[in-house]
Amino acid sequence: MPRKTVVIGGGAAGLGAAGGIKAVDPDAEVIVYTQFEDVAYSPCGIPYVHGGEIESFDKLILAGKQAYVDAGIDVHYETEVTAIDTAAKTVAVAGEGAVRYDRLVIATGFDYADPGVPGSDLDGLYYVKNIRRAAEWDKVIADTKRAVVVEASPLGVEMVTALAHRGIETHLIDPNPYPLAAMADPDIMAPVEESWRELGVHLHFNTTLEAFLGDGGRLRALKTSSGEIEAELAVVATHKTPNNRLASAAGIKLGSTGGIVVDDHMKTSAPDVWAAGDATEIPHGLTGVPLQGLTGSHAYAQGKVAGTNAGGGDRAYRAVYVPWGTPAGKWVIGGASFGEATATALGIPYVLGVAEGISRARYYPGVKKVKVKLLAEPGSLRLIGAQMVGGGEGIKERADFLAQAIRFGMTLHDLATMENVYSPAIGALNEPIVVAAQNGLADLAKKA
Amino acid sequence: MPRKTVVIGGGAAGLGAAGGIKAVDPDAEVIVYTQFEDVAYSPCGIPYVHGGEIESFDKLILAGKQAYVDAGIDVHYETEVTAIDTAAKTVAVAGEGAVRYDRLVIATGFDYADPGVPGSDLDGLYYVKNIRRAAEWDKVIADTKRAVVVEASPLGVEMVTALAHRGIETHLIDPNPYPLAAMADPDIMAPVEESWRELGVHLHFNTTLEAFLGDGGRLRALKTSSGEIEAELAVVATHKTPNNRLASAAGIKLGSTGGIVVDDHMKTSAPDVWAAGDATEIPHGLTGVPLQGLTGSHAYAQGKVAGTNAGGGDRAYRAVYVPWGTPAGKWVIGGASFGEATATALGIPYVLGVAEGISRARYYPGVKKVKVKLLAEPGSLRLIGAQMVGGGEGIKERADFLAQAIRFGMTLHDLATMENVYSPAIGALNEPIVVAAQNGLADLAKKA
């Protein structure tokens, strides 16, 4: 009899898992439960449709429903799983009753942190997540004159830019002194703030939300520690929290972030139960600090690993060094591992190498600034983190590289002596990463 | 008494050396001899001025003459060094007589290989090198209706695209079956050839030059193994050969390529004589095969190392894994170390991982193809080479990374499990390098 594997969740992790199972065990019966109407679209693209960069939500659809039927994956849409019984090895499914599994993958994703203030039930509060809701909200956005984005999280940063591009009077409120403070450094974000101001965005930092204020059940204004801001729309972009309700109720072990604890095979504390994606927490490769809410790329890769193992294969998920990147205002920001702010918060000592480089030959049209900041462990000078801000070109590829450099223990010496492509239209004589490493070494030599 | 260091050559290697000396020994007397009117411009930009992408030759000037005066570097312009006497530690300088040195750096650069056919003395043959000559030739190009580029070398590839952009009927002749055959693979160059055809370029492969044919001392046509091609202009882009005349006459050891042999400190066989740049040969990091004619970035870095050591410091030049990249037609090509063609020629066995990936989310405007081909050592699966062709974004940064990956012995497993940034506007869910590695492993698993 084919093995029956149940996957809870139809996002990147859940679908990665379903594919992973089928890859190692083509005969396995694979059922995916999702509470939504669709799977296989890119939620990460939603802010860019709102911003007008992508012309329609249809573009975000990656595969039709038939693709999963053809792959032998049985997706149950708009179907809620209400409980897991790890002893009986069943899940309780609304409308289906108890469904037996041989193997289970939990990929229940995230929720936005509850803003925890009065007025959360008003019309006009938008939590960006589901593509069908996004298409409805896009009509609301079309008629919106004033909007507030609550918190400069990664999604908040994207939505601020999107609403400003849309010509809406856009406000951003955030309790920290600068945007994306949980991951980026202030000097990296400074040009982003400047470019938002150029777009007419109103920035309210060191500002906490106190209430959503309504009028006839509809949002009228946001009450904040810096005063009232009138707005018809609030994009609530609070940080992501793991959706751990089912796992928690089933007694599966959770970690300090609330994420499901998994081993290096994405296995949970329960027998025959794996987990992947935003519902889990993953230790940082250098510090072991649990991380929660990584990217869709991580979720997909974790899903693949969970599915491979749930399907009877054997694949480890490698430690994460977290390359990241995103457009922000007119810039692209990115990095790997952590920056100065996080290192300082964690009490991790570091030495710095910084360079303001360029993306092409200085004289070639379209040349853009590329600022690179490298953090290295004192003594060994091994790379432990990096942050960048630039005009766009190559930030993502450099972030990928720097995460791998951290994984492989590359030092400032290794990066200072790295070869680089020089071709005027695509690369400058001196690669900014190399110059940053050389500057770091020169600073150390001066101090010595 | 300050140490007197003489540098022969005012290109990237020579100026890198001059700066390297001053960095470790600010009191050193540093004299640079150049036969040209200028130093400190970017010759690599010349094809892009011809192509119209860069508006004028002035843009290529990096620093004025005063910058070198200020730095304490004494540049003798339009001054030829005619001999080196390593026993007497002097150089013979036209107009100056014998000049004593304590330390010498030879950075005499390259010459284009002599095409070795009749008619080489005709007007209308353009060897791209010097910025003042380039400005004069640009006026000739403006009046040119038909041009032939001789050999699809890196410069030839750039000049074909430049002349085609300029609206000139452009022909390319090359003895090999496809362009850039000394370094790139045919599948990488196929889209480039197609884009040249779209630009109206006439491609003549498997074609050797037999003579330049003249009329009243001016070029009228090129006689080739495939017939005559009428043209008023021939860009002679034959391969680079080391300009080793002075070193050779001085009895300094040359290698199999004709390049000056240097140790890992860029020291030649003669006492107190270093060399750097295109005049030298450098062993390939994996194979030890001597390489000659690398990029301006290599020349500059080698010059820095030679200068640092000549100035009394101690710096090794790391083995080269040769990241490279250049626009070609409407594509950007690049890679690191070698591709299949070179590996096969050298008798080096390899396994392949290939992917046709994308530069951004599939649905994001401006998304471009990125083909990645990885060569790994059978058994260990260590990366030994890579080639790419793509729409532009990130080819240079990926080439830099892949060269470093080779240096650090990364395997297909390491690359298959690499994390990557996913953000729709700047990176796809799956990084093409990762997919190529995964495909390579999947192919091996199928064969096993």
TrEMBL record, chains A, B:
Keywords, ordered alphabetically: FAD, Flavoprotein, Oxidoreductase, Redox-active center
One Pfam family it belongs to: Pyr_redox_dim
Residue ranges occupied by any Pyridine nucleotide-disulphide oxidoreductase dimerisation domain in the UniProt entry: 340-417
Named cofactor requirement(s): FAD
Residue stretches making up the FAD/NAD(P)-binding domain: 4-282
Domain of life from the UniProt record: Bacteria
UniProt xrefs under Gene3D superfamilies: FAD/NAD(P)-binding domain
Protein family membership: Belongs to the class-III pyridine nucleotide-disulfide oxidoreductase family.
Protein name in the entry: FAD-dependent oxidoreductase
Species, as recorded: Pseudonocardia hispaniensis
Top-level taxonomy: Bacteria, Bacillati, Actinomycetota, Actinomycetes, Pseudonocardiales
